[in-house]
Amino acid sequence: MKTLLTITITLYISCLSGNLAAQYTSPIEYGISADFGRSYYDRLYYEDYRKFKDDGEGYISHFKSNYVWGVGFWIERHFNRNFSGLTQLTYHQTDILPDIYSQWNDSGFWYARETHHHAQAEIGMRWYINPQSKLIFFTELKGGVNMFVAAIDRPYQKGKQVNWDAFGYDRILPVASAAAGIKWRRFALMADYGHDLLRARRDDPEKLGFMDKKAGILTQRIAAKATFTIFK
């Protein structure tokens, strides 16, 4: 009887330990994300604009969005308790000052509102610093591509205008991002920073002539991001 009880307890503990380990280190997790922040733009012109000032001349070299928000879907593949791989698809909508992105060296006043729509795909790695704690700190690095899907202008009159070619700028660009945050059970909260790896150039030879390779717009994005694990 004592031997049978010992075997039963041993088997129970073994199964329980296996279940706990499986719950803690699920090989694949699926989830959703939401973020809110702001985009910052650095623009170089096709001529020497430094002789002008950002005082109404139209040569605006630095500007920012009113806000940017996004939603996404992600898959995480755990290699061990400390490291995992990430795949992420995200949609972003940017509310920006009308015309400031579209014009070569001017900002217009014909529209009440302008929104930009982007789709982004990234892959990367995540490092869990203290995986055995209830509150787990982590950092992550990702790289991928960002696609300018469309820009929608809303005139002061009724209706809207849709621009599908990113105002002549490059629509697809390589991007990189980094994040740091904290995870509790199925929830995670982090600070996320994204950066274009190349400037978006505008190729319009009929109006602008030869395009300097250093000219164009470079975008950065800072956001607070929350995620939730749906399946694990």
UniProtKB/TrEMBL annotation:
Record has Signal as a keyword = yes
- Superkingdom of this protein's organism: Bacteria
Please state the span of the N-terminal signal peptide per the UniProt entry. Answer: 1-21
Keywords annotated in UniProt: Signal
Q: Which protein are we looking at?
A: Outer membrane protein beta-barrel domain-containing protein
Question: What organism is recorded for this protein?
Answer: Dyadobacter fermentans
Lineage start? Bacteria, Pseudomonadati, Bacteroidota, Cytophagia, Cytophagales
